[in-house]
């Protein structure tokens, strides 16, 4: 309060609080009520998929011997952002309960779980074990392909006397895939999200450059407008550099944490078990010697792991200036850019980011304040990557300042955003 004077004419403010405080408050009073699926489905955009980890993983009865699942990814590996088409074929009886999960890493164990019911009980889960112990990044029903259930893509697998006696069906789905460093596989399930069983797995797909420096975002470290912190994620632990201004550079400090760190802390499930995903290495460096209300460019990385694009950014005005143009919002979250579902989706977040990007392009924004409830990863760590990728077109260009909300009570410890 009082450190900025804000002109009435250029004041842009969005407040998008959706009352999540009230619901989390009641959660500490009534965890089982809070965790009930109906409650979540009705009052938030938490999908049915959210409770997948509570399902017993059974065997599929009579799987088709012709099943195949393949992708169109190129032999050189996955890029940093692309759409992967997943092709399922050889299905004898297409069912509305058939679905495909994107799993990462590919060697994660889907068949059995920690024999520790206490961890699950912490989440209000009293199902019998084993459950799905590694939570998929996302998933989609095969029926999203309108030709799947109607078997438009029919193939003949067996002929007798020139007549087809066995024919199968298939379909394909498109997944938006971003570089999350660890390799991925697509797994065909049946039984829906309620009684899942595994039918077939694709070959593992690797990212071309799992070490790539990505998802850079900037934040002010004081109110002078002369220094900006850049934070990014990479698969590589050696320090990298930010290069900015006219030939200036700074070396990054690097940090990370392991699943063991999570286990030895007091954090509850799922961050330390079925929600775990390797966070890579978090690099951060401060660009100093800048001028307030000015444009500069920067890139981050190293010759060995590669560089980000050259990014234009703007410093905010110095404290005490007559005018500060900022956007403030809370509760944004993230959403998939394909037809799949994730454990927790905020569909409006994509249009919010697009609107913010438009404001930045028009030069209307000096700073962004995301005042709590940031990614809604809530212990599913890979969703921080999805969120950082979603905000990077804006967070890499003006200072993106965050405050913690009730959904970051644990998550902020996992991946500080600035
Ligand atoms: C949830 O929504 C459904 C469908 O709108 C409704 O039938 C049901 O009563 C709601 N349940 C709760 C607990 O609000
Ligand atoms: C795979 O298919 C998708 C369409 O679903 C397309 O956008 C993408 O470019 C294809 N990838 C390759 C490597 O051909
Ligand atoms: C899917 O795979 C089948 C069998 O391998 C093939 O015949 C079909 O053309 C593929 N469909 C697509 C959309 O790639």
UniProtKB/TrEMBL annotation:
GO terms for cellular component: extracellular region. It comes from the Eukaryota. Its cofactor is Fe cation. One of its GO terms (molecular function) is metal ion binding. It catalyses: a phosphate monoester + H2O = an alcohol + phosphate. It is an enzyme of class 3 (hydrolase). Its main location: secreted. Residues 324-408 form the Calcineurin-like phosphoesterase domain. It holds the Pfam family Metallophos. Residues 216-315 form the Purple acid phosphatase N-terminal domain. Its EC number is 3.1.3.2. It is found in: Secreted. InterPro entries: Calcineurin-like_PHP, Fn3_PAP, Metallo-depent_PP-like, PAPs_N, Purple_acid_Pase-like_N. Keywords: Hydrolase, Secreted, Signal, Zinc. Residues 75-209 form the Purple acid phosphatase Fn3-like domain. Belongs to the metallophosphoesterase superfamily. Purple acid phosphatase family. Homodimer. This is Purple acid phosphatase. It comes from Malus domestica. The lineage of its organism: Eukaryota, Viridiplantae, Streptophyta, Embryophyta, Tracheophyta.
